[in-house]
Structure prediction request, 402 residues.
Amino acid sequence: MILSRKNSAISSSPTLAIDAKFKAMKEQGKDVISFGVGEPDFDTPQNVKQAGIDAINQGWTKYTPTRGFLKLQYVIAAQLMRDDRMVYDEGNIVVSNGTKHSLTNAFMAILNPGDEVIIPAPYWVSYPEIVKIADGTPVIVQTSEANDFKITAAEFENSITANTKAIIINSPCNPTGAVYTLEELESLANVAKKHKIFAISDEVYGQFIYNDVKHATIAKFIPYETIIVSGVSKSHAMTGWRIGYTASTAEIAQIIENIQSHTTSNASSISQAAAIEAFRRSSLGSVEQMRTEFNRRRLYLVDAINKISGISCKAPDGAFYLWVNVKGLLGNTYYGSTIANSYELCESLLENAGIALVPGECFGVPGYVRWSYAASMENIEKGVERLTTFVTHGEKTFVAHI
Ligand SMILES: Cc1ncc(COP(=O)(O)O)c(C=O)c1O
Prediction:
């Protein structure tokens, strides 16, 4: 039997593969700590959970409108107004089953076979696969560490071909934590406008920004060419509830609604009720608590990592990841094996130091690892200790051995 040519080209999520290996080791009783996951280690805020429980008890257990409850669309629009001064109404918002689903809907709404989507690397692992699922062709564009791994207007323009349909802007970025400034977004928007290219603006980490840096969206400059995608998974520690949304023109929202009406219908009614509570002003305190704690870990970890010889990282302005340059360790021998690349380094770190990090290869840029600080401070401190021991004694352990 011949299976789908398109879908057999889709690879499984590499971050989940590392997590699976970590879980297997944990099950075997090994003392391992994961810094590989992309979800907050906090519980969903109590008022949000209660709203879900109330929804069940009050019978919010039926199909909802495909785009989601009107009330939910309103509170999402209110947040976009509060954070970005962007005017959207119920004609522009579609609620889906998580940001991943919203991204898939967005690409299905705009792509035709052969259309190219520019993806700045390092990129979140699912972007190329989602583009392929929607019949598009991912075009990976390398960025530079000197520009904090943010694509410049020149890099963007140089990558445009007659087939370019869209660019993905992910700010704050997974895996680098980089945040685009308003000026940077304006120059990217000018290129997009000139060449009639859509911007898919993934803002799922938008609530986790540190220092005095402000969240900005490219939609400010090209509202008609931008599809904002976001959700509550990260901001409200609601990864399991599966609520995401798109904010777009009414025309695109209608196409997304049509697609969704034949695939998943609506997002879970109970999760929608909880999300209404999450988007309310009254939940901002919980988000702020998480942000403050992430910031505390971020500052500690950046400092600690830069004290370890052979590795370095910049202090990112957003998300909850550090993008660590490990090129200084490559070519060295640790615990009997010479480490050729960041993938092998992560394997050795898991086996010999008991810490799970995600290799840069997964994000299209070898020579780096992603360290998620969505982990307790106690575990982060242990992780730093283990990495330090690995780097400083790993080689010696082997030498002493022979
Ligand atoms: C950049 C980025 N976009 C989207 C998602 C998916 O979020 P959701 O859980 O809402 O589908 C993730 C999750 O890791 C992410 O890192």
In short: The chain is about 40% helix and 15% strand.
